[in-house]
Amino acid sequence: MTHSLLAVVGARPNFVKMAPVLSALGANGVEVRLLHTGQHYDKALSGEFIKRLGIAEPDANLEVGSGSHGEQTAAALVGIERDLRAHPQQALLTAGDVNSTMAAALAAVKLRVPVVHVESGLRSGDWEMPEEVNRVVTDRVSELLLCTSADAVENLAAEGISDERVRLVGNTMIDSLFRLLEGVDRAQVLAAHELEGRRFALVTLHRPSLVDDAAALSAAFKVLGELAKDLPVVLPAHPRTVARIEGGAIEVPEGIRMLEPMDYGDFVALESEARMVITDSGGVQEESTVLGVPCLTFRTTTERPITVEQGTNTLVGVNPLDLARAAGAEMVKPAPQRPPEIPLWDGQAGPRAAEAIMELLAD
Ligand code: UD1
Ligand code: UDP
Q1: In whole angstroms, what is the distance from residue 79 CA to residue 128 CA?
Q2: Which residues of 55-70 are buried (b: 16+ CB within 10 A; e: fewer)?
Q3: How far is 297 from 258, CA to CA, in rounded Å?
Q4: Which residue minimizes the CA distance to atom 3 of ligand 2?
Q5: d(CA 362, CA 348)
Q6: How is residue 129 annotated by DSSP?
Q7: Whole-prediction pTM value?
Q8: Is 336 among the domain residues?
Q9: 132 in the same domain as 156
Q10: Helix or strand or coil: residue 337?
Q11: Are both 293 and 358 inside the same structural domain?
Q12: Number of domains in the chain
């Protein structure tokens, strides 16, 4: 019997986490219908980004676009429900913690379609983060919960989720990282950005708690501007950040190189060569750990504690002076010698996820 499922994606991190799972399911003959909610729609975040990851053209795009949380989630929910009714499936696959992730889970559970969640169990404990709500709701209604690390499994157990539904498969984002890094000419990417032989900091900032607060964003840029006097600062900017800079008339200090969002291959090439990364991204904390590149996370919490406990990540908080101190201290430290090895962050998580999914489909 041929198995089939609906995979839902919507925003940049979804594509990176889902690509290896889609590829492994395809290799096992599972028929996958791919639905893009359209939460992200710029070429650099969606169209071109998806292509570089080798994901097939989605079968449908709901074009929900930007909006309030309610508008975006509701539009995705309605569209996914319609799609599931028109194309009945054995299961629904969703990944990560964005609004499209939760909308997909809710649409499926109401139709009694089993939900599979890639990257289950991460918890920041911070309900101010929209992603935390998405994580908890998605996990609560999922039938198969695929975890990246043991702490995520423990979080689910603490919430009373039966361990029969939980599988530790590892980190599918790292499969994408290894695959793309293998195929990219790092020297060429460095040369394109005039960074050959130079130390530099790679920065990404997009969390609403920072970028939607003009004073906080301005203060962060001041610190980065000071850092740029000693170390080139490269900042591929998320459109939310660009919109806030323009809307808030925020001054970007000279020396900070603002770029368009980069495609994944080029981004990980720079990430792997950076002297340090400064970020509020979830995925970047994990990637930098695997690459052995020091990461300063400009947040008060992380849902990825393993990157701090076993990796190269430091949670610096949100005081710009602490960021300045941490970056200064990092500059004078010797660069880490060898990347830490996190169990199951080995480039084979996609096939393990597919195996667990196929057991569910065969039931
Ligand atoms: C979303 C996710 C966040 C994730 C991030 C990854 C939620 C609640 N947030 O945040 O968890 O870390 O994606 O990148 O799901 N915009 C564009 N073009 C686009 C998409 C967005 O210009 O293609 C701009 C619009 O001004 C929009 C803003 O970015 O209002 C925010 O987009 P949205 O999808 O609401 O959230 P993100 O900040 O991208
Ligand atoms: N990323 C990229 N180009 C960029 C910025 C980020 O390819 O210009 C990658 C990065 O490697 C990250 C992934 O996109 O792991 C998705 O991350 P994002 O930071 O947007 O979301 P989060 O992980 O915080 O949810």
Answers
A1: 27
A2: beebebbbebeeeeee
A3: 19
A4: 262
A5: 22
A6: S
A7: 0.98
A8: no
A9: yes
A10: coil
A11: no
A12: 2
- Mind listing the pLDDT tens digit for each residue in 277-303? 999 999 999 999 999 999 999 999 999
Report the C-alpha gap between 53 and 44 in whole angstroms.
12
Location of structure tokens 């323009």: 246
- In the annotation, is 206 catalytic? yes
Same structural domain, 248 and 161: no
Q: Would you say residue 197 has pLDDT above 90? A: no
The minimum-distance atom of ligand 2 relative to the CA of 263 is 7
For residues 190-211, average pLDDT = 95
Does one domain contain both 9 and 131? yes
299 in the same domain as 323: yes
Q: Which of 12, 97, 98, 119 is the pocket-test mutation for ligand 1 (most atoms within 8 Å of CB)? A: 98
CB neighbours of residue 45 within 10 Å: 19
Q: CA angle, corner 185, sides to 184 and 188, nearest 5?
A: 135
Q: Which residues is 9 bridged to in the sheet?
A: 36
- pLDDT above 90: residue 248: no
- Domain coverage including residue 56: 4-171+345-362
